[in-house]
Amino acid sequence: MKIAFLLQSFPCLSETFILNQITGLIDLGCDVRIVAFNKLKESKQHPDIQKYRLFDKTTYNKVPETKLAKRTKAAAQTIATFIQHPILVYRLQKTLLTKSQAYNYQKLFLGLRFIQENFDFIQCHYGPVGNQALFLKDIGLRVKISTVFHGYDLSVYMNEHGPNVYRELFTKGDVFLPISNFWKQKLLSLRCPEEKIVVNHMGIDTTFFRPVNRNKTHEGLNILTVARLTEKKGHRYALEAIQKVVKSIPHVEYHIAGDGPLLEELKEITCRLGIENYIIFHGKVNSSEIMELYNNADIFLLPSVTSSNGDMEGIPVSLMEAMACGLPVITSAHSGIPELVIDGKTGCIAPEKDSEAINKWIVHLAKSPELRNQLSNQGREYVNTFFNNKILCKQILKIIKLLLKDGGSRMKGYER
Description:
The chain is an alpha/beta fold. The chain contains 17 helices and 12 strands. It folds into 2 domains: 2-60 and 119-203 and 389-407, Glycogen Phosphorylase B (Rossmann fold, 3-Layer(aba) Sandwich); 221-386, 3-Layer(aba) Sandwich (Rossmann fold), CATH 3.40.50.2000. The protein has helices at residues 16-27, 47-51, 67-84, 86-99, 105-117, 127-133, 135-138, 156-161, 167-172, 181-189, 235-245, 263-272, 287-296, 317-324, 355-366, 369-386, 389-404; strands at residues 2-9, 31-38, 58-60, 121-125, 144-149, 175-178, 221-226, 252-257, 279-283, 299-302, 329-332, 348-350. The chain is elongated.
């Protein structure tokens, strides 16, 4: 079975949930390839990229900058593909000439790639990427197209492009995989056919993220956040809570791992609140560094919020990782998070933007080792049951097989 992952960028260290799907399907025996529009230059990479030799499986849909280079590449690839697939190349050219006033070289190279490869199934991550793949249906490729919706694509992107931005995708796409029931309800409100929707959570490797014997060598309380430094992660409210916490608990350290556009702003807030001696910014971290941070932490904190431009979370993977490592977590009643963190059972939930509620939870957990142990055990068990990447990838494979069986185009009869 030949599966393509169509991605806006690859590799992206902050999108380990996509990497987990790719490697999970490879482990299940699928022939997985990656087609990406952009290659990010990152200082650190996930070890699975090397382990699975993913760059050897990746093609970048790069359009040359100069007009001559574009035309030369277009002519060479079109002729080479036309020799083997004349009808499909004819349909591709016809579609490009009728769909847009300006000739779209990006779609040309993408179309030629998919004609050459003859994939069975395309997994598009994020709604805009699903839209970019739709023209492959118009040229007559007999390929099933799945679109995974995460949160950004149904919040800020849709706010910018209007409620009908996915109308054609809902009609022509074969299956839609929102990562939470929260986003399934959003798809239904947009009149996406319910029979095409299957909730498929993002998952983690629970054999890698697991509890270790914590021989606590530090005094006081270590609190950890692993997240990009963006508004929707709620760092501001975490810092405001820490200002309150340090008044009642001695020897507090708040570790913040991740980079992003708000780094300097958050450092300024830290100084303004007078808590710079309690805060440690680690910057971008790789998987081994993350594990060390999880192992040394007492509480994991991620108070996600809806950002000022409407951007929202899916279900943060870092919450899953922390819970799998046995950390009690404090988070917010935001997006699909309550599907992972059940308040008082698998973790603690505060209202969005409520630093006082966060403070109360931190102090309560610090003084209640029995509750910390209870949340640790129940959180780990919940992630292992419902957010286990191996199980979730088997679900995806089952979906793919159902769609490919007898040319199926609906998910009727699918059961987890």
